[in-house]
């Protein structure tokens, strides 16, 4: 049933949730590490813990704090830092998935005021969902597109059948994780492109990770105000400059790239 595709948002819990995009005077809870509770694991600057504000019913919500610093983002991480972050995060995501406690487990990141996030401090989220399998809504062609770079371990393309329209970048590797170092560095390159060199100014993005058909896929979304055609009618748009965008990313970040 279509109703089974909905999750219930818990407004009472959300009322107490800090948001320093809306209120710039809000203290960042992730900066005050001594006050953090329900920590599951730590590794250097990385912490995974239970979300203090679990706003979605019938889920288990976890947060991965990426950095000691509040005013930073993935584009500023060193390659080594990015690799360790992605390794730490994917390890926990797949472990929760393997536990079989949930119908599916999603792993994603919000960054910026248009991303759907509430805190500026760099973090990602893992959510175990009791009653929904996210893979049921996916189509293979959502991850196909204009090739930008390909090696034995990884590939990246610009989607020609995006979920929500315009530009979505797909980074793909095997779930053996043999190419996780290259995969991590490519995700960082795409994020850097989106925040600094995209054809229009962009200060927000999402990362969405998928585990399907023995592959790990990261889809990078530049984020803007959602198209009213998509919101009201489910009509998606694609850019007439897709080839130019793919070529621009290739020239700027992959012309001399060697893993």
UniProtKB/TrEMBL annotation:
Q: Which domain of life is it from?
A: Bacteria
- GO terms for MF: nucleotidyltransferase activity
Q: Which residues form the DUF4931 domain?
A: 9-132, 136-254
* InterPro entries tied to this protein: DUF4931, DUF4931_C, GalT_short, HIT-like_sf
Membrane-spanning ranges: none
Query: SUPFAM superfamilies from the xrefs?
Result: HIT-like (SSF54197)
Question: Where along the sequence do coiled-coil regions lie?
Answer: none
Q: Which UniProt keywords apply?
A: Nucleotidyltransferase, Transferase
Pfam families (alphabetical): DUF4931_C, DUF4931_N
Name of the protein described by the UniProt record: Galactose-1-phosphate uridylyltransferase
């Amino acid at each position: 049933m279509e109703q089974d595709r909905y999750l219930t948002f818990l407004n009472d819990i959300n009322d107490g949730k800090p948001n320093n995009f809306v209120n710039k005077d809000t203290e960042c809870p992730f900066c005050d590490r001594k006050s953090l509770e329900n920590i599951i694991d730590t590794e250097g600057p990385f912490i995974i813990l239970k979300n203090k504000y679990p706003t979605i019913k019938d889920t288990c919500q976890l947060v991965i704090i990426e950095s000691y610093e509040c005013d930073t983002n993935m584009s500023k991480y060193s390659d080594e830092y990015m690799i360790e972050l992605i390794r730490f995060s994917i390890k926990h995501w797949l472990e929760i998935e393997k536990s079989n406690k949930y119908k599916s487990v999603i792993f994603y990141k919000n960054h910026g005021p248009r991303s759907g996030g509430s805190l500026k401090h760099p973090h990602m989220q893992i959510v175990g969902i009791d009653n929904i399998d996210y893979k049921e809504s996916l189509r293979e062609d959502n991850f196909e597109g204009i090739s930008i770079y390909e090696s034995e371990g990884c590939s990246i393309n610009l989607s020609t059948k995006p979920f929500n329209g315009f530009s979505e970048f797909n980074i793909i590797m095997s779930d053996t994780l043999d190419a996780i170092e290259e995969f991590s560095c490519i995700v960082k390159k795409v994020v850097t492109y989106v925040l600094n060199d995209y054809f229009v100014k962009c200060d927000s993005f999402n990362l969405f990770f998928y585990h399907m058909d023995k592959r790990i896929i990261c889809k990078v979304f530049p984020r803007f105000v959602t198209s009213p055609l998509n919101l009201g009618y489910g009509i998606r748009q694609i850019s007439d400059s897709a080839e130019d965008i793919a070529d621009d990313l290739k020239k700027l970040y992959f012309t001399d790239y060697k893993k």
